[in-house]
Automatic annotation (TrEMBL):
It comes from Amycolatopsis minnesotensis. This is GntR family transcriptional regulator. Transmembrane segments: none annotated. PANTHER family: MANNOSYL-D-GLYCERATE TRANSPORT/METABOLISM SYSTEM REPRESSOR MNGR-RELATED (PTHR44846), MANNOSYL-D-GLYCERATE TRANSPORT_METABOLISM SYSTEM REPRESSOR MNGR-RELATED (PTHR44846:SF1). InterPro entries: Bact_HTH_transcr_reg, Chorismate_lyase_/UTRA_dom_sf, Tscrpt_reg_HTH_GntR, UTRA, WH-like_DNA-bd_sf, WH_DNA-bd_sf. Residues 1-22, 245-269 are annotated as: Disordered. Keywords: DNA-binding, Transcription, Transcription regulation. Residues 20-87 form the HTH gntR-type domain. Pfam families: GntR (PF00392), UTRA (PF07702).
Length: 269
């Protein structure tokens, strides 16, 4: 830890006997050091050093650190130690693409196509896309990375009548850019629902996290000139992302804006 963090931890914060469990006290001491003093990528002392400094067991230290790893404040690197994690990125609540979003952050986006085909969509997707009973749609499953780090898994359904031949194209590139180029479709409106979810084994494997780890899930139904085109659900790593919204007590529509998205010009997913 930095000198400032050590002074704060050693001089003003200590673990004591009392009603608050020691692991919880230590967790908050470490949290303050991480949030106030340590930049992303900084190493923290070893379990042995922390146990000696705060006069607690290594099991107490391991419990405190484990909770901060789950919260995304710390990250363990096998063979190297524990480090402060990169700060979470804000997910944009408007129709901006993953590709453009990552590039705007100075990162290199890449896409891996995991699966594609034609199938009967589940009832909610069929209804959202305006498809008839037992009418097939295009299915798309992709993994999104930035600077080689897996950040999101996407599973989506697309209207085949409006996007004929979609699954025959190169779907590792920007999808919204492809729609504009190939079909002259600029998605201009969407509604979006956000919820928290735990990673199942398959999603955890793809994202390189433990099963049960935190995810932010987004379901977005996008349209062009009132015609639905896409029903996409994306699962983002909870240790890399957060959602920030603006709430206005004097504007009753502010809450609705978090659940509906309006396209910006030239957005490409």
């Amino acid at each position: 830890m930095s000198a400032a963090a050590q002074t704060s931890a050693g001089g003003f914060d200590r673990v004591t006997d009392g009603p608050t469990p020691k692991h919880a006290q230590l967790r908050e001491i470490l949290r303050r050091a991480v949030e106030r003093d340590l930049p992303p990528g900084s190493p923290i002392p070893s379990e042995r050093e922390l146990a000696e400094r705060y006069h607690v067991s290594r099991l107490t230290v391991r419990s405190a650190i484990g909770k901060l790893v789950e919260e995304g404040l710390l990250a363990r690197v096998r063979g190297k130690g524990t480090f402060t994690a990169n700060r979470r990125m804000d997910l944009q609540l408007y129709l901006m693409s993953f590709t453009d979003d990552m590039r705007s952050r100075g990162k290199v986006p890449t896409t891996e196509l995991l699966d594609t085909g034609t199938a009967i969509p589940p009832a909610p997707a069929a209804s959202a896309l305006g498809l008839g009973d037992r009418q097939a749609a295009y299915r798309l499953h992709r993994l999104r990375r930035a600077d080689g780090v897996p950040l999101a898994v996407e599973r989506g359904w697309y209207h085949p009548g409006r996007l004929p031949g979609l699954i025959e194209l190169d779907l590792t590139r920007s999808l919204y850019g492809l729609l504009a180029e190939k079909y002259d479709i600029q998605l201009d409106y969407a509604w979006q629902t956000v919820w928290a979810e735990s990673a199942d084994r398959e999603t955890a494997r793809l994202l390189g996290i433990r099963a049960g780890g935190p995810l932010l899930a987004f379901r977005r139904v996008s349209s062009c000139q009132g015609e639905p085109v896409e029903d996409m659900t994306s699962w983002y790593r909870g240790d890399h992302y957060q959602v920030t919204t603006q709430l206005d007590r004097n504007n009753p529509d502010s809450g609705r804006k978090a659940n509906h998205t309006k396209a910006n010009d030239g957005g490409t997913r």
